[in-house]
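Review form for a predicted model. The reviewer records the input and the model, then writes brief findings.
Reviewer: anonymous (R2)
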Amino acid sequence: MNCSSPAPFEKIEAAQEYLTLLSGTVTENREKVEAEIKTTTDHAHKRHTEVLLAVIYNLEKLERHLKASRQALSNLRKLRGVLWNESTGTIGQKGKDETDIMEPSNREVA
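Model under review:
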């Protein structure tokens, strides 16, 4: 029984969509933690506040990494388009299969 389901990130666009959703979730959670810090001003909760600040720091770091990853995927998508156009001899036209990550190298060029 051979189930051939597509890989979740077979296409650059799928990975971009995932990173966009993940980035939104990280931002949303960072904002919730920031709101919680504003309500926790009691000195008895100093340790709790310090931990929340560490959480915010790490969420901000993750946001920066996700932004860089989305930019890298965008660059790969543009480069894939350039390679595809060079390999087919077209200028400014996109093929229907251009969205595959390995498109230019997995096709035979006549």
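Findings: The radius of gyration is 21 Å.
Further findings: Confidence is low (pLDDT under 50) at residues 95-110.
Recommendation: see findings above.
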